[in-house]
Amino acid sequence: MSSCFSCFAFVREPPAEPSTENDKTAALLSKTTAELQRVKFGKEIGKLLPVPILGPMKEIEEGYPKKVYKAPTHWDSSDRVALHLPQAAADSAVALEFVLNGKPVVLQQGQLDPSLTLHDFLKQYSRLTGTKKACAQGGCGSCTVTLARWNDVIGKAQYSSANACLLPLGTLHGVSITTTEGLGSCQSGLHPVQQRVADYNGSQCGYCTPGMVMAMYSKIKSLEPSLPTEQDMQLTIDGNICRCTGYMPLVNVLRSFGEDGVEQTKKVCYSRTGEVAPYVPNQHDPPFPKSLVGMTKSHSISTTMSGNGKVWHRPASLKEAIPLFKQAGAQIVAGNTGVQGLYPDDKAKTSLFVDVSCIAELQSVKVDIGKGKDALELGAATTIETLGALLSTDERGRHASLAQAIKDLKSLPSATQTNLRRMAQHVYNIAGVHVRNRATLGGNMALSKLKPEHFPSDLAPQFLAVGTSLTLLNTSSGATRTQLLAEWLKSEVCPTDLIVSLRIPISGFVFLSQRAMLRPQNCHAYLNAAFCATCSNGTLRDVRIALGALPQAMLASRTAAQLEGKSLDDLQTHLPQLAATLREEAQFTDSHDLQYRETLLNTFLYKFLLSLADRGDTDTYTSFARPLPKSNDVSFVNNVNGGSVAADAIPKHTSGAQASGEVKYAGDVDMGAGGLHAFMVTSRVAHGLIKTVDASEALKMDGVVAYLDYKDIPGDNNVSNEQEAEPLFCTDRITFLGQPIGLVVAQSSWQAEAAAKAVKVDVETLPAVMTIKQAMGIEQFVVADGAPRAESKPGVSTGVLETDTSTSVRFSGEWQSGQTKHFYMERQVAMATPRANEFGGGDGVDLYHACQALSRVQSGVSCVLGVPNAWVQLKQHMVGGGFGGKATRNVPTACAAALAAVRLNRPVKLVQDLCTDMSMNGGRHPVLVRYDCRVDKNSGKVLAAKLETFGGRAFIAEKMGDQVSNAAKPCLDPWANYNKPEHRITEAKVALLNIPPSTAVRGPMHPKQAMAVETILQHAAAATGLDLLTVQKTNMNKQLDSGTQTELWKELESSSDLQARMKDVQAFNQKNKLKKRGIALAPCLWDVPPIPASATVSIYNGGTTKFLDGSICITISSSEIGQGLHTKVAQICQHELSKHPDLCEPVPLELIRVVGNSTEINPAWDLTGGSGTNPQAMRAVAGACEILVSRLTLKWSTNPLKKRLMNMNMKAMGKVGKKVTWQELIASTAGPMGMSAADLTARNTVFMGLSNNRSLIPQMLGGKLCAPHPGHGAAVTEVEVDVLTGEHIIIRSDLLYHMPRSVNPVIDLGQIQGSFVQGLGFFLKEETIYSDDGTDLVTKDTWEYKPPCAKDIPQQFNVAYFRPGSVKGLVYGSKGVGEPPLFMAVSAVNAIRECIMSARCDAGLDPWADVSLPLTPARVSASCAVDVLKQVGHA
Asked: Which stretches of 81-121 are assigned E, i.e. beta strand?
């Protein structure tokens, strides 16, 4: 057969009659299938072509209609729940019933562990993967679901949001649960909430998106029939974290569901129709299950569920509960937010749970109205959200059942209404809404008493201040008593006491409260306080001052006594004495930010007194009003010389599937039968020697299959292909906290986690060096990684720096930055399946893995397994965020999963929990920078600069670039957008620390460079008395990017109205002493690297002209991590293929599918990152498409057989000489036996924009060379700072980014917004803190590590593109956009420092103060150095 086909290329024009056997065969191929089956030419055609040939069957006039997926009407979406539960015993009774996405679920006794969370139930026993678990604390919201219970009182269902990671199965009886899959799907149609999230550009990596969707849906349903207000919107996603979008698109989605919301937001809706998806609740929302209607009585029926040695009782009355309380080891739970979220180890030790959430006596709500002594009497199981609704008198939607109580509250005097509002605003800042919906008042008080060293209750100070009392039940004797909360907190713990109710006074006094936080939402306080007193005849009476977050709450009785009887007119004169007493009384039991918290005591007291002097009319709780943020309408007009590239400005094409939870991430891939789960055993110290490891107890635990360590590795104990090895498992010397020691494998993830914690590791602890300054003290440096002292002009530069002149001034300072984390929402994850190789044996492995560099993982796994790279194959479709953290630090996770799979010959999934992930994987390299500079007094030009940098590195070297480049060296050359001073002196040292290996984080090195240069310039401005903008312009590099930077700054200065606003800020600061505003500009510059990329593009012709196909499949080597790569390459594919000269219309974008990456298809050594991946991947796809267009274009040199077959098919379709659709063009290539007249698969690899399939010189002459290009822009940010607390609000940010042309301006907009907000986190909030001895990572979870939230973004968030400039050397004229905007966030640092300098000038201090990153409230307050005791008489 091969010889016959080899002759086909030489047949030019078949003769009228066949003359040779080869000619006969060619003629045969021009006939129909029916003819071919019967015609013979010397030999039977069956001998030549033994397979039946498929070809054109009949002539048709036009293409087949587009294939539109239509699900049969009888399909039920509840079928997609697809539960696969373990078999229950035949005679077991029903334990509980609930409904999941419309499907009834019945669980029997002994079938499942009742303490199993809903998330783990969904993950283990269903195919619903939309509900994610990123933190397991209720701190990120990625697991949000909607709960609904029927309420007979109001005659409808009550809806609320909840964290599936905190919801135990035992508490779900009678509940309807809706996950994002239950709202809609790409198959059945998206729900309007899902559709709007997609259309408003509200999804990038998509991992948090299902949680966002359910948070919004829950809020909308909970308010029906009312529409959400702006206040509601702010409290909708306060329990959700998004690392990618910058929240602004999500805020726009929320606003669209409010009054006139569609009209207000339609300009920021980027749907293909141009319309906002309509929403009709009764039409679009899944109905409440009829089977649950009227099931209010289910709450009055006790239930018990048992399984896995655990029992969950849910009594309906105290009478039924008391005997259960008396059982040994009984754990009382209600909302389960504390036991599960904060203290999971306590839960793991418990086998008997008594759920009091449905006990009628604990759910009472009553307003006791008495003569000036009105009070709320609430059952202990009342949720915090319900308390908030009562205090804010909100009876809408789900709170309609509180109508009578709220009516009573509304009847109270205005002074009481004021108290209620003030208490409500404090309540609504406790945790996030999903936790508030479950957490109870009694549980909060209990934790405050039982966990005084850790749990800083925000409710307790309020309750103490107003004189709250508790009704307590002795579960042993049955007796009840009433006791003041203040007395109860100080008393010994009585294990038989149960809080039944709380009496909270609400009138007859002035109530004030304060709270200082790192983040304005979902964040425990540095310190909180509440003040309560009566004002009678101008004097204070009945004074109570309560403090919280010490951590335990307490009454400051002595301070209150000193205020008793004082006149309101001269309170401030007593401030020094009162402050001294208050400091003596406050009992801080931890040292975290202790000096700042002690300062807050004075601040809070001062503000209380200031308000009281105004008769309590001034609210002290919040320093700033925070309205719902707004954005501008971004212009998407491209460079006039560039034209349009893509067909549409559209959101990511996977946004809908992300919103509906249908996108499968690595952790969502089904392992199939026999799959196991793994969990790392890690070091609990930062430095030490392993003496013994004992896994015997762990191996005895239920479900545990194996423990593996370095002794089980068949290859090398090395996950790196670099010169310096990194062991997969530690063998003897531990060098950082969280270092992997071994791996436990079990049947479920929770069994593996419990067993891993049971492995005993005996370690000889050694002194740990955790900070750069500690290393400097003992001179623990890596000499080889340092950069020796150097001068730009040897022997001259130092002299210029040190020689004083009348026209210059010298200044110096230092700052440092820690090891901030990536905090990707999807944890490190890998799923490995053993694979037999072709030569026998099962030493190969297939991996689904979340990573940014597949080949690096492939190399590491092959090294550990001791097999060739081809024996290890990786696949992935989408990554739930990376930011550099999945470029190298993911490799140990993949290697460990692969080892377990090969060792046990079973699929193994390893998903790191948040704490392990944060401990194992480093973030940015820590750095300390010292500078010494000389600047011209008149112009602000920097004349000389000495920079000495100290970087920090781990004992294990990072695998991406050398330590000098990442740790210390960048800040030696930070000038970026500015001219380098003529005289420069530099030196770098790298300290060796007991920290996990650091790696690249979004915009590696450059944020620290931006901080370094902006610090120098702002200090120069302070030293010379010039304004910062003047100094910046003086030192600006006017030649950058062919001079476009100068024009960009001018445009930004004009569009942001900078000069006028600077004057307004100055006027504001002259009038205000305790609040300051600052406004500043800061540029960014990132040399976008041309990262190599490869792509394979395949076209499917369907094998016939009868049913047209023409679909296209793209496989790329680069990873989709949320940056819109798949959408952009699909658009480029459409753009390039549409250039075919015979097409009558563009290629339909809907026909293009991007399937991610696979090392079997694209084994190139590629990395995703640095903003350079998108342009090069687009060029790789474009090159492949150019090849395909060439193959599909008939020319004189075209293979005659190919030409004949395509012409024959065109004739059959009636399209000869006519323009055709894409599907018709591809159908013309359909040949016999499924063959194609053209090779419809093309592969292309590019580096620096140049394809390896073509000659370099023509490509370079054609302008395709893409060297590193400058990604630059600038931002103007205005802030307001409370100089006493150090808290701030970003009033407005204007971002202008240089982008001559955009392939997809919507995606680029999302990248700019998200990158900038992530930069705000780096510069202002995020910090890695270890204990001094290295035995604890304090910031290991969402309780302590605080990325930005929705309230952190600018109140006015403006983004614009700067279009002028050359497109030469750019792929489609577009620039990389993922990294640079992050550096613009240093504009917020500049603005805050302007506030600091203004405050210091008012205080008579040197305006400049060194301040390190991040600029937390503690650091800002300390830098302002305002002594509140000197503020008497000032406002």
From this structure: 94-100, 103-108
